[in-house]
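Could you join me in thinking about how sequence relates to backbone shape in a protein? Would you write everything just below, so we can both look at the same thing?
***
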Amino acid sequence: MQKIRNIAVIAHVDHGKTTLVDGLLKQSGTYGSHEQVNERAMDSNALEKERGITILSKNTAVRYGDHKINIIDTPGHADFGGEVERVLKMVDGALILVDAYEGVMPQTKFVVKKMLGLGIKPIVVINKIDKPSADPERVVDEVFDLFVAMDATEDQLDFPIVYAAARDGIAKMDMADPDGDFKCLFETILEKVPEPTGDAENPTQLQVFTLDYDNYVGKIGISRIFNGRISKGDNILLAKADGEMVKGKISKLIGFHGLNRMEIQTAEAGDIVAVAGIETVDVGDTICDPQNPMPLDPMHIEEPTLTVVFSVNDSPLAGQEGKHVTANKIRERLDAEMNTNVAMRYETVGEGKFIVSGRGELQITILAENMRREGFEFGIGRPEVIVKEIEGVKCEPFEHLVVDLPADNAGTIIERLGRRKAEMKAMVPMGEGFTRVEFEIPARGLIGFRGQFLTDTKGEGVMNHSFLEFRPYTGNVESRQYGALISMEDGVALAYSLFNLQDRGVLFTAPQTKVYKGMIIGEHSRSNDLDVNPIKGKAQSNVRSSGADEAIKLVPPRDMNLERALEWIEDDELLEVTPLTIRIRKRWLDPTDRKRYGTKK
């Protein structure tokens, strides 16, 4: 029996999980001396590298002495909370990272609640102790208070603490000690994390917690072996969540070491491996022995809370920039996404329209961003929350929102959130002129709030939220205050007409951009929509004017990226997403259609 430890690294977004895993990989001697390794090596996806966040949980394994330590790096963003919950069922211990200044944040509370509920004993790592504003003692007290509030057992409250600056590869057991390397962290893991339970002699039981996809071998289920042995070529039974049993055969068995995956012949209880060859495999399924099938409990996967409609692009400029533009191509791409992403669903509604449900705006914009990079062209509507009927009462999702902001802006933000039906729960000074305010708010109230929040706090505010529960519907929530500037002509926008329009509001369009009738070129400074002509040039006459032409000075247009645009639009507007541009348009391009629809509404 090999000596194994299985741990997950969990924390709030940006507290340093992936950087810590980097340090563990480097200091365990996993990389050869000749290997060049990028920073945050586990974030392999292009979007993860750009945004500096983890989107998919990933696993790796390191050798320390004669032990193998399987490490799972998890996402910290609230939209990917379901991913964290599943991973925790696969491990025997967890490293909880907490920023030495920010302390306990909403996602920390979310993951700690899941972890304590599963009876896992934590190792608390206070990270970023090298920050000038770090206050590790206060943060340790916060973590202890959180554990007490969440009804942790005596054993869980007796947690070891490691102080670290993961970026510099420094760790120590006491703040008074000199800086050391990660040796003390490795020793703590071996000492405090229990060995995996289960026996290699029992009937086989593997549970799948993440999916991967390979064009060559198809679906791959990354799973933990709870009991027994598994070998390449074994015949198995797949127990689905609904009780169905499917026969299958393991065509490939894959083990992990560092950033590499290698084919292995056999593995036994306690290890984490990837299996290929079973096309119908899903998250939570059990792979068991055909002679003695003993399925494990299927996993609960978090419900989606938001939906958006993806549709075929039908604007006048459709098909000019994208490679994949048809409904069939979009459907194939959504099918491929659902193969590996269990937190999302989609259904076809009408001709060329698909309702995609997910856990939040970030999850949906990441899917849209990946699709446009792959050459897709499509339209997206405004996100809407999923409303359920629970015991005859209409209910909607509520979020727990935490904002850290300069104390001078607190009044403005509290007032704005009040109009969005938020209820203030706590207000704590954070030192250095910052205040932390906690709210409970309908998820609808958060759609489109981030841009406004950043403007009000001059970019210094930080907001984080996580799903609370479904509660009775709260009525109308205030949305965008300003109207839109809508082009009334097809053509190319000219600097002369944009110069005359910029007094009317904020423009999104630069000169020489193609525009069409019904396309939104800016935000009006008042609450009503305004039809404007952005393609009118200066009339030239053959009489010389006495004054020279005045130089045209244009204010740079507001850069509307996918996330900002999706938050900005209203119900009667759409985003046209192509590989090169993001355009905002009215759903009805013709002004008479818009009026007709407006009166109906």
Summary: The chain is about 25% helix and 35% strand. Residues 32-37, 39-44 have pLDDT under 50 and may be disordered. The longest helix spans residues 136-149. The longest strand covers residues 393-406.
